[in-house]
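User: Quick sanity check before I run a bigger batch. Here is a single chain. Can you write out its predicted 3D structure?
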Amino acid sequence: MQGSELAVALIGWGAIARRVAAVLAERKAPVRIVAVATRDAAADLAGLPEGCRHISSAEELTEGAGQRPGLVLEAAGRESVAPFGRAALAAGMDFAVSSTSAFVEGDLLDELLALAAGSGAQIFVPPGALGGIDALAAASRLGLDHVRHEIIKPPAAWQGTPAMAACDLDHLTSAHTFFTGTARQAAAAYPQNANVAVISAMAGLGLDRTEVALVADPAAAGNAHRLTASGAFGSMELMLTNKPLASNPKSSEMTALSLVRLIENRAGALVL
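Assistant: Done. Predicted structure follows.
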């Protein structure tokens, strides 16, 4: 490993993590993936980066001479956030969280923040499939009155979720809003599809004051997000339509690209 390379551990080796690794390699980023963690020791590891360790427990993060990660990035689902977050932050490693729905219940976020404060590490929450988080977070410093986040996806992207009981996904002829509630409620009920609602909530009014609407639209060209906010700063409206990730229609290409940006910002001399 060159001295200028950032050592990264990826938690998960599913569609998002594989795409992140592929894009980093294509862009020749100054990054080396030193470990990939999966809960299943016999998981499919096709395409694992050369020289990368495969681990299956959080305790193994700190093992391996010369391969200690500076950044641990979770892309494996909410069940992985607690164990790997605790291990990484206690050891002084920065921790990036994709499955932000893990923060909707209990005191996990407070626990991880305390560990980070104690070790000098940081917790990163990438914007995922959503744009405008920088503007929303900046506006929140002056005070927000209202934030609404609509998540609009083709019916196929909602298959295998509670949306199947809320509407007939196979026979929709127009856009149908099957859920309206808080960001906390949306992320708890739709952890794979509505992680990004936690991000907009954390940047703005919080989990219980951010309004979320989930929409199945047979005419949708991709996975779309409409974010509106108002407050002392003025008002904003953002509409972003993402192409679904080819290997997982429940997620977006932008989700993986957001993680690539975070890693490259940590590794590079210029942060954008």
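The chain has a mean pLDDT of 92.

User: Great, the batch can go ahead then.
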